[in-house]
């Protein structure tokens, strides 16, 4: 087994890091998973240390030495690589670690786009912990958003949805907001008898606000699907935002008059109702009538690996092998 025929694929998300080694034939040699290590969250050095440790574990799991270099090419698609300047800093830092002869670092939304297309051309919107979108035209032009939260105009993502569920439940309880079935649903989620109990738990740290927001996102969608109008308005707002992200990219890249894939992914969207997806498709087709909506539930690390195979010059057979592989369950840290 030659290391020069291997791709080190890294999907570095906010909540987890997924690492695979894949050879030039598209065979998955190993797959491991560790904690989220976004550079924006844990810092550059801790992020790289986490990625390096996982790469070493993946190497050992593949029957290799566990020592760098692990592969000929590293394809790292990371949350937190939101601006070209960040991508450059991260690329230089990863290259300096000596994990492979060549390195590409880009935002993780590009990995979703590649996972949902055969050539990385189209528009992708990811809605997981946060929300982001990217578009790539046939001539190589790209369109993207900073995706830095509220300061860059963002709205949406699992944390936002869960936060809205909590906010609406509190206001329904204290009289500032409309009655909503989110109130009993949130109480049931926490096993609490009052919103005061929940609020105090969050305030004093007995309950983790970040964890709570993510966990409440599915509650919001369940209540909306059951017909609650307050929760349904939030879901409608999300479909509008997803349509806006895709529509802006389609317009800016001049893709409104041609067949173009619009790839959706991330935990919020892969678990979304058919109504949400139908609303998003309608909004996309209002901008680009020949757009094709694609919901992708492949792990984003597969998209990273596909970009890596492209860099190795692997052909369609390797891509087909990787897409058709029964991926091993990631070994947890």
TrEMBL record:
<dbReference type="Pfam" id="PF01869">
    <property type="entry name" value="BcrAD_BadFG"/>
</dbReference>
<keyword id="KW-0808">Transferase</keyword>
<dbReference type="GO" id="GO:0016301">
    <property type="term" value="F:kinase activity"/>
</dbReference>
<dbReference type="InterPro" id="IPR043129">
    <property type="entry name" value="ATPase_NBD"/>
</dbReference>
<dbReference type="InterPro" id="IPR052519">
    <property type="entry name" value="Euk-type_GlcNAc_Kinase"/>
</dbReference>
<keyword id="KW-0418">Kinase</keyword>
<dbReference type="InterPro" id="IPR002731">
    <property type="entry name" value="ATPase_BadF"/>
</dbReference>
<feature type="domain" description="ATPase BadF/BadG/BcrA/BcrD type">
    <location>
        <begin position="10"/>
        <end position="308"/>
    </location>
</feature>
<protein>
    <submittedName>
        <fullName>N-acetylglucosamine kinase</fullName>
    </submittedName>
</protein>
């Amino acid at each position: 087994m030659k290391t020069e025929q291997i791709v080190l694929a890294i999907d570095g998300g906010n909540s987890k890091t997924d690492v695979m080694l894949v050879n030039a034939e598209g065979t998955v040699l190993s797959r491991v998973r560790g904690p989220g290590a976004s550079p924006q969250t844990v810092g550059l050095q801790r992020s790289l240390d986490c990625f390096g440790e996982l790469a070493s574990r993946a190497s050992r799991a593949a029957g290799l030495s566990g020592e760098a270099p692990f592969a000929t090419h590293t394809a790292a698609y990371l949350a937190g690589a939101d601006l070209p300047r960040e991508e450059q800093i991260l690329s230089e830092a990863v290259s300096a670690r000596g994990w492979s002869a060549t390195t590409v670092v880009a935002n993780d939304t590009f990995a979703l786009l590649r996972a949902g297309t055969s050539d990385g051309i189209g528009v992708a919107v990811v809605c997981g912990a946060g929300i982001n979108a990217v578009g790539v035209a046939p001539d190589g032009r790209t369109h993207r958003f900073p995706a830095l939260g509220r300061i860059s105009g963002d709205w949406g993502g699992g944390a936002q949805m869960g936060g809205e569920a909590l906010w609406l439940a509190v206001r329904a309880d204290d009289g500032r907001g409309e009655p909503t079935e989110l109130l009993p649903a949130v109480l049931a989620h926490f096993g609490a008898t009052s919103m005061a109990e929940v609020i105090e738990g969050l305030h004093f740290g007995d309950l983790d606000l970040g964890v709570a927001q993510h966990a409440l996102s599915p509650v919001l969608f369940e209540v909306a699907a059951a017909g609650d109008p307050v929760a349904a308005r939030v879901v409608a707002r999300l479909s509008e935002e997803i349509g806006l992200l895709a529509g802006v990219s389609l317009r800016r890249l001049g893709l409104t008059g041609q067949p173009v894939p619009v790839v959706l992914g991330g935990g919020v969207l892969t678990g979304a109702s058919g109504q949400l997806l139908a609303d998003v498709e309608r909004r996309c087709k209002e901008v680009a009538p020949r757009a094709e909506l694609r919901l992708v539930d492949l792990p984003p690390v597969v998209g990273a690996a596909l970009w890596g195979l492209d860099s190795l010059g692997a052909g369609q057979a390797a891509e087909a092998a990787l897409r058709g592989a029964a991926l091993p369950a990631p070994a947890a840290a």
